[in-house]
Amino acid sequence: QVHLVESGGGLVQAGGSLRLSCAASGRTFSSYAMGWFRQAPGKEREFVAAISGSADSTYYADSVKGRFTISRDNAKNTGYLQMNSLKPEDTAVYYCATARTTRDLVDERVDYWGQGTQVTVSS
Q1: Is 34 exposed, middle or buried (0-12, 13-18, 19+ CB in 10 A)?
Q2: Which of 95, 56, 49, 62 is nearest to 74 (CA)?
Q3: pLDDT (tens digit, 9 = 90+) per residue, 10-40?
Q4: In terms of DSSP bridges, do strands 92-99 and 10-13 run parallel, antiparallel, or are they unpaired?
Q5: Under a CB-based contact definition with an 8 Å cutoff, are residues 95 and 7 in contact?
Q6: pLDDT tens across 75-121, in order?
Q7: How far is it, in rounded angstroms, from Cα 98 to Cα 86?
Q8: Are strands 33-39 and 46-51 parallel, antiparallel or unpaired?
């Protein structure tokens, strides 16, 4: 079992930045890939970014490449999503998730989900 708790969401103006955190407990943190998804009102949930257990590989959705950075600190059992140059279309509930591999996350074969944190970007 893995328990995930997101934090760091909030309201920010377009062009601003936020950093989301995902605190994990349960299994050894470095043994699984971690990722972020988001769901905007009236839309389906979509993949945002993923990072391998050892942090040696990362993947991003085209819509966030160059603006978002995923990272993790295995010593702190915490993952992060640094979001820069935010746009109103980034407004969504952001979810942390884990899976066996980054490929599993990209394909949304998720083992565990966090409860989500709201990010709102005003224009």
Answers
A1: buried
A2: 56
A3: 999 999 999 999 999 987 889 999 999 999 9
A4: unpaired
A5: no
A6: 999 999 999 999 999 999 999 999 999 999 999 999 999 999 999 99
A7: 24
A8: antiparallel
